[in-house]
Amino acid sequence: MRDTKESRLLLVLLIAIAFALITVDIRGGEDSPVDGARQAAASVFGPVENGVSSAVDPIGNAVTAVRESGDRHDRLARLERENAALKAELGSDDRSRSRLKQLDKLLGVAGKGQYGIKGAQVIAIGAAQGFSWTITIDAGADDGIERDMTVLNGDGLVGRVTTVGPSTATVLLASDPDFTVGTRMEAGDELGFASGQGDRPLRVELLNGKAEIKKGDRLVTFGSQADKPFVPGVPVGVVSRVDPSGGDLTRTLYVTPFVNFSKLDVVGVVVQAPEKDPRDTVLPAKPKPTPTPTVTVTVTPSAPADGPDQPEQ
Questions:
Q1: Taking the chain, what is the end-to-end CA distance rounded to the nearest angstrom?
Q2: What is the enclosing helix (H) or strand (E) of 36?
Q3: Helix axis angle, 35-113 relative to 5-28, nearest 10°?
Q4: Percentages of the chain per state (helix, strand, coil), in multiples of 5
């Protein structure tokens, strides 16, 4: 339709008629004179509306589902974060309890041996010096740590300090192949030298090739001159194998260390040696052997079976 004066007048007239019909319909209520026309229109356009609605509703439902899914995802993510935080808190408590237990054992060893110690925590494994079995601790020169000090934990000998910085220090572990410490057998005077073998048992060369040693015997550190690098009496390990002497001047033992070098956390550096050798007092109490139950079987002779009557003599 062209935009003319007549077309504009027609548009205004149609709008006026529409408003008039709306007014009549509202005032008429259920008896509205246009109710029949509205019903006829509904019967014509209703199916079309339903079809459009059925086509559009899945999309709307999908949008709603995505929106609600996002809300559920946010709630799930929030719950996961809260659970992770709770687990971290519980884990922190577990670590704290573990460290308190380790510290308690460490103080027990220090008390038995009368060692003056500086507590430290392992913060790294390995070092720039190229040692294969070392740890770094969070204590250094500012804490009174010096080179060639003995390092132990609640189980026994850990190693010795090799390098010292202001706030950290490097410890060579007793399992390192370059590590050697003088040892003494429990309840005896048999001396030897223990060397690290990585993840294998320590190798101990006893000075007495005829020494009577058996599996299960235990060793402690013999101590060094001026107590450096080793103080005496620190538990080293348990004999796991004894090589035949074969008439040699020395005898070779293999010793399982008390310390688990792959699980080190809280350690102590001996900054003050004991006034006297604690000997074997730092060693833990030997476990009591579990008695083996025995079964006693008593055989009771049975009565002889009845046989045929014997003829009288």
A1: 155
A2: helix 35-113
A3: 80
A4: 35, 25, 40
State both tokens at 23: 């007014």
- Compute the distance between CA of residue 123 and CA of residue 104 in angstroms, rounded to an integer: 20
Q: Is residue 259 within 8 Å of residue 235, measured between CB atoms?
A: no
In angstroms, the CA 172 to CA 184 distance is 21
What is the amino acid identity at position 110? A
Tokens of 80: 């996961």
Please give the single-letter amino acid code of residue 283: L
Distance (Å, whole) CA 81 – CA 77: 6
Tokens 């410490």 belong to 181
- 252 by Cβ neighbours in 10 Å (0-12 / 13-18 / 19+) ranks as middle
172-200, pLDDT tens digit by residue?
A: 999 999 999 999 999 888 999 999 999 99
Instruction: Say whether the peptide bond before residue 229 is cis (omega within 30 degrees of 0).
Output: yes
pTM of the model: 0.64
Quick one: 4 exposed, middle or buried, by C-beta within 10 A (0-12, 13-18, 19+)? exposed
Provide the total of helices (H) and of strands (E) in the chain, helices listed first: 2, 12
Q: Please name the amino acid found at residue 196.
A: G
Highest mean pLDDT: which range of 126-135, 159-168, 294-303? 159-168
Residues near 190 by beta carbon (within 8 Å), at least 6 away in sequence: 184, 206, 207, 208, 211, 213
| CA 39 and chain centroid, separation | 76
Mean pLDDT over each residue of the chain, to the nearest integer: 79
- For residue 103, the tally of other CB atoms under 10 A from its CB is 17
Q: Which two tokens stand for residue 139?
A: 């204590």
Q: What are the backbone dihedrals phi and psi of residue 308, each rounded to the nearest 5 degrees, phi first?
A: -65, 145
Secondary structure of residue 104 in the 3-state scheme = helix
Report the SS3 class of residue 271: strand
DSSP code for 116: E
CA dist., res. 253 & res. 234, Å (int): 18
